[in-house]
Amino acid sequence: SRSGKGGYPFYMEKEIMEQPQVIAETILPRIKDGKPDFSEEGIPDQILKDCKRICVIACGTAMHAGLVGKSLIQAMIGIHVDVVMASEFMYNDPVVNKDTLVIAISQSGETIDTLEALKFARKCGSPSISVVNVKGASIARASEYVIYTNAGPEIAVASTKAYTTQLAVLYLITARMAMARGLWEEERLLSFMNELQRVPQVMAKVLDTKEEIHRLAGVILNAQDVFMIGRGLDYSILLEGSLKLKEVSYIHSEAYASGELKHGTIALITEDTPVVAVVTQDKLKSKEISNIREVQSRGARVVLLIKENETLDEGEQWSCVYRLPKMDDPFMVMPASIVLQLIAYFVSLDKGLDVDKPRNLAKVVTVE
Ligand code: G6P
């Protein structure tokens, strides 16, 4: 039945469509006079100011959100960020201490690996903030401070709106950290926050093109293997886009950092292999395009996601291009992520699969 699904056939589609609204609900209460504000959460600037490094602990999709956070914080704050899979945390003799700010990210707030890693870090004296969707969950209670993602209940097993609201919180943390450290001029802070507030409307614009994305998904529908390539932030979101596709469509997909392809699996890219390429960062564009040429010359069918204003050379086979609405580069992951979610969704839908309940996956994992 479609009841509870807002008229959509699956929760996943409903939850994808809700993103403009839930992103707004996540950011707006934390903006005062145009600036990031965690006074409701009681987070003292001191812990954002004093930490020498950051350790993000999370699993699955939440871990992928952490990778975007790492790029943002390293680029804008200039401190080192580790993103650690919570299930591996204990097995690598973790080095965390009072100078390490721990950020635990979890939709459910109940993932046992994340909870245990967080508890260990706290014992080592690390200050901690959790980013959790479910109110009052164990991870929220086990951390010193909590910032809730206001995504609302996420029912589809494959996470969508929880991921993008986690990203939204990471932008807020980055901005507050820059403020606490006195790193940015007022003007830069306000313009960053303005761009963040534009995310919901830009996402809505992408959602309006759902049928165009549905057609792009057709390139992947009958594939055995898919590759997704990009660098930097583009690579981070492709890890998530690729996981999403695997989870709901059972198609084997690998996200590969474009520059690493030639050191690894480029031999697997042959005639008609679908390759999803994301190009959103000005400083990476020329290198990414040349990597795309490499796979095209091996016969790959490239689905390219690129900013609306970018020019592409004539005479190439750019048959599948999606034009992303333009934002400042650090924010391009937001519209691009929605396209990747919808590609995964439509492939699963068109295969006639049970999109919301992929086999063998659980929404909440409370065993180690
Ligand atoms: C499970 C879910 C994933 C999720 C991961 C972490 O494996 O199937 O979608 O990303 O757990 O869950 P959490 O609730 O901690 O974000």
Automatic annotation (TrEMBL):
<feature type="domain" description="SIS">
    <location>
        <begin position="43"/>
        <end position="183"/>
    </location>
</feature>
<dbReference type="GO" id="GO:0004360">
    <property type="term" value="F:glutamine-fructose-6-phosphate transaminase (isomerizing) activity"/>
</dbReference>
<keyword id="KW-0677">Repeat</keyword>
<protein>
    <recommendedName>
        <fullName>Glutamine--fructose-6-phosphate aminotransferase [isomerizing]</fullName>
        <ecNumber>2.6.1.16</ecNumber>
    </recommendedName>
</protein>
<keyword id="KW-0808">Transferase</keyword>
<keyword id="KW-0032">Aminotransferase</keyword>
<dbReference type="GO" id="GO:0006002">
    <property type="term" value="P:fructose 6-phosphate metabolic process"/>
</dbReference>
<dbReference type="GO" id="GO:0006487">
    <property type="term" value="P:protein N-linked glycosylation"/>
</dbReference>
<dbReference type="GO" id="GO:0006047">
    <property type="term" value="P:UDP-N-acetylglucosamine metabolic process"/>
</dbReference>
<keyword id="KW-0315">Glutamine amidotransferase</keyword>
<feature type="domain" description="SIS">
    <location>
        <begin position="216"/>
        <end position="358"/>
    </location>
</feature>
<dbReference type="GO" id="GO:0097367">
    <property type="term" value="F:carbohydrate derivative binding"/>
</dbReference>
<dbReference type="GO" id="GO:0005829">
    <property type="term" value="C:cytosol"/>
</dbReference>
